[in-house]
Design goal:
Oligomer: single chain
Number of helices: 2
CATH superfamily of the domain at 17-136: GOLD domain
CATH topology of the domain at 17-136: Jelly Rolls
Strand order of the largest sheet: 1-3-9-6-7
Shape: elongated
Structural class: alpha+beta
């Protein structure tokens, strides 16, 4: 498993769109830090490298993308094979980092010599597909209602993010205080040991000198 060299932080960033290159059967993963009970929506598209044109094609027929989502507790939230483009969804059950792994199902026969692929990925945190919902609306009232619901969801997501980050800061503060307390006690113990060793050495030398009748 190969992890992309960045961490997607979901704090107040409800969408992250980017692309990356992969080889045949190569797996790449990203890490998303999200609170619990949060809907994650990922939209992807695969482009295949054309050796003749020396450019990426707009589509990649015959190819697919295997998407796996796990937590650090190795709980599998999603494991599914999709086509060359599509959308996947999953909901987090607990706060923390989630690992999203993507792997093409290409082979040398399909990709004509193991050519590289470009994967476009758009990850949205705590958002529903508003455009699709509006497209199904029958009148302006429903459209406004959908937009209001979407706005409320975003506000709830921001509040959830704030609470999650507040909990993380509290845990970090408690860990820092415990560490500082342990360092303080260790320094006190070291000082006590040094003083005890000094007193013992002085007493030993005094007894030695007395025994040798040097004092």
């Amino acid at each position: 498993m190969r992890v992309l060299a960045f961490l997607l932080s979901s704090c107040f960033s409800l969408s992250a769109a980017f692309y990356f290159h992969v080889g045949e059967r190569e797996e790449k993963c990203i890490i998303e830090d999200i609170p619990s009970d949060t809907l994650i929506t990922g939209t992807f598209k695969i482009q295949q490298w054309d050796m003749g044109r020396q450019d990426f094609l707009e589509s990649a027929p015959g190819l697919g993308l295997f998407v796996t989502v796990t937590t650090y507790n190795e709980e599998v939230l999603l494991s599914k094979l999709y086509g060359p483009q599509g959308t996947f969804y999953f909901t987090s059950h607990s706060p923390g980092e989630h690992i999203i792994c993507l792997e093409s199902n290409s082979t040398r026969l399909v990709s004509f010599g193991g050519s590289k692929l470009r994967v476009h990925l758009d990850i949205r945190v705590g958002e529903h597909d508003l455009d699709a919902a509006i497209a199904q609306a029958k009148d302006k009232v429903n459209e406004v209602s959908f937009k209001l619901e979407h706005l409320i969801e975003q506000i709830e997501q921001i509040v959830k993010e704030q609470n999650y980050q507040r909990d993380r800061e509290e845990n970090f503060r408690m860990t820092s205080e415990d560490t500082n307390s342990n360092v303080l006690w260790w320094a006190f113990a070291q000082t006590l040991i040094f003083v005890s060793v000094g007193i013992f050495q002085m007493k030993y030398l005094k007894d030695f000198f007395i025994a040798k009748k040097l004092v």
